[in-house]
Amino acid sequence: MTSPALVPAPAPLALPRMVVASAGLTKRFGRLEVLRGVDFAVRAGRVTAILGPNGAGKSTLIKILLGLVRPDGGSIAMHGTDVGEDPAYRARIGYMPQQARFPENLTGREVVRLLRDLRDDAVPEDDDLFEGFGLARELDKPVRALSGGTRQKLNAAVAFMFRPSLLILDEPTAGLDPIASGVLKARILRARAEGVSVLLSSHVLSELEELVDDVIFLVEGQVEFQGSLRRLKETTGETRLERAIARLMQRGTR
Amino acid sequence: MGSAVLMFALILAAAPPRRIVVAPGGPVPTVTAALRLARPGDTVVVTAGIYREPRLEVRVPVTLLGAGDAVLDGGGAHEVLTIRADDVTVRGLTIRNVGTSFTDDRAGIRIDGARGCVIADNRLLDTFFGIYAERADDCVVSGNVIEGRARRQTTSGNAIHLFYSTGFTVTGNRVSGHRDGIYLEFSHRVSIRDNESHGNVRYGLHFMFSDSCEYRRNVFSSNASGVAVMYSRSVTMVGNRFEDNWGPAAYGLLLKEIKDSRIEGNLLARNTVGLFAESADRLVVERNQFLRNGWAVRIMANATDNSFRWNRFEGNTFDVATNSQGSSPSTFAENYWDGYAGYDLDRDGFGDTPFRPVRLFSVIVEQNEPTLILLRSFFLDLLEAAERVMPVLTPEALVDSRPLMHWRVS
Amino acid sequence: MTAVKVLRYELRDLRRSRWLLGYVLLLLALTDALLRFGGGGPRAVLSLMNVVLVFVPLVSVVFGTMYLYGARDFIELLLAQPVGRGSLFAGLYGGLAAPLAIGFLLGVGLPFLWSGQGDGSLAGALAMLLATGVLLTLVFTALAFLVSLLFEDRAKGLGAAILVWLAATVLYDAVIVLVATAFTDYPLELPMLGLIVLNPVDLGRVLLLLQFDTAALMGYTGAVFERFFGTLVGLAVATGALALWCAGPLGLARARFRGKDF
What we know:
The complex is a heterotrimer. Chain A is an alpha/beta fold. Helix content of chain A is 31%, strand content 25%. Chain A has one domain: Rossmann fold, CATH 3.40.50.300. The longest helix of chain A has 16 residues, at 178-193. Chain C starts with a helix and ends with a helix. The interface between B and C is medium-sized, with 29 and 40 residues.
């Protein structure tokens, strides 16, 4: 039951533990069956990518993990505890949604303060990314005066701020310029080095190549493949992620 | 025999008038005794004291005068004073405690079949009926204060009650707490002036079958209804105030079966219905002020040939309501309406476009009273605006074609 | 505590909202003008009746709905934080309803204050005017939540919000008139009262009518209205029903918010 979430991450050589594990997740929206019995796991201290064509159920899966969507069936647990009514588990998650929309009339600093206020624990904040993105000057402007890119930077910085043990990044590099994108990728890799588990989804497969350890491939609400990037390449016989995925998709449609 | 009686009478008449003084413990300790001694023309002076005596009957023309605080107390059981002789004057007395009766109309002072009497400056408290005149003529009732504690119509009498009594003058009285403040039945040529009638449980003033009467400069306030004029003709109503008759079925002035009368220069303010007219014909209604009433004028279709001119309508929820649909049997002209939004380009003091004082909402309410609960509904405001542009439901003919731009006191 | 925190930040956000500022300024100008040129206090209060019954619900439900659609993504981000949905909902509702209600109170109340016309005989009517405005703000903000939670599509939601307002302020009373006309020959007083209770705007109107001497007119139509409007029964029933109108949609919206998939 107890988990060492906020202590420094264990050494990478320790046995791989599961941060998130699900069994038989199902979800339908009206007639549409979005998830059809999904079993998946996110291994601790690794970067896991959820991939799949549009409508495969990627964002639904992420939302279920965040408690935004309730599954119809199956179970999902984080650190061995069921994701249920008690919202406390989310204290260990850093979430970066695909698109950042903050209250227009608040300043970045106020948004940050609100999110901090919502957590009772007094974790020393990680403002690495605020520095990395050079956000300091922007924080006192109201959100409505910020450019889309700046909002996205704020969005990313906020996800890392509370030293989560699990990072959920939805299309993290979308809307970021190449430099900011590079800063973020470096930060993700450092987080992994610190033992943080990362779950991300992205369309830009070439970007993932350098980041990803494990891949979960979803097709039509089912897990088509789950395993390390290395194993994916082995099973498909491809050397590049992009090609390997293409191969998987062909297999899926057959 | 007859001549002997006549001689006796002459001797009596020839004797000089006397003053008989009534005082507790004095030679004439009771009013009863004094009245037994009194001869025509005598004055009975009642000095301060409380007199509890059987019913007093005045059978000779005398003056009954209260000196100081003289109280005639009926003990809650009987009428106090009955006048059966002409030219009797009753002045300055306090009369109280007659007691309610369901079987006979007891009064503080009854004038029974006499003429030329004067009832002035008396105080009547809890007298069931205050001053009750029956088949009496040409009397004066003035300056009396008549207070009752009526709560219900059925257990209360009228403060001043005239029955088959003509030529009365009723002035400067203050009446309250009765069924009707002043009540007239089959009583003609009565003049009612400068009285105050308030807090009565039925009407401040009530006419039944009483023609050729006038009432001027009276104040009727906070009665269940102000004044009711019914089954009468040629009544002059000038310069009165009808105020604060609020409540269900409360009218300032209620007219029913009345003809050829004049209503002029009155103030009707804060009444549920200012003026209600049913079967009222040939009335001249001029220079009156209708202020802040629920309905200023409610006129039924069977009221015909009435003329409303130079009146002021301001702050009323409804200016005019009628159950008449098409033609208008009465005319409205040159009145001032605060709801009028027209213009006066030729600057003659009259609006250039006509004013329709009957609101659509009042038409709806007239047909279906519970819809009144929609008062001030936004939907009805919209409907009202549409109706003003294109009248469909409001009576086409009921219109003031020369509305006054400003109210001038004239 | 979460509720209070969210409420505080939303309050701060809305305090700087130009829309809300415009709402307050419009109310200020309108009330001030009515007091200055509209023939004094009592008349101004009567004219403000329509503002309270028509304008306040419109702004509450339309502005509320639009604000909630705009805040959708941020609400998702908040939901991803370690907070419960129930308290988050309470905070969001309070944070939207409070600025609207306070804005209304300031916009209508201040001109009375600085013109010195709000005391004495007018105090009761003014207090009821303000109270009714606040209650209607609460009701229509709750309805805004319900609408924005029921319709995923922003345009549909906005349409629904306007429809809710139109139904409550106009269409409903039209139906009452039709019903009354159709059943002229039946005793209608009680059914009418029943219909009135089912519409928050009509309830607000009844509460305001009770404050003016026009309430006595109601007795004219019969004993049922006389008792309702002539005693404390009307006040109690109307206030209670309006409170239910607030609690009902709010409860539904809360249940919807708790069970919803974002």
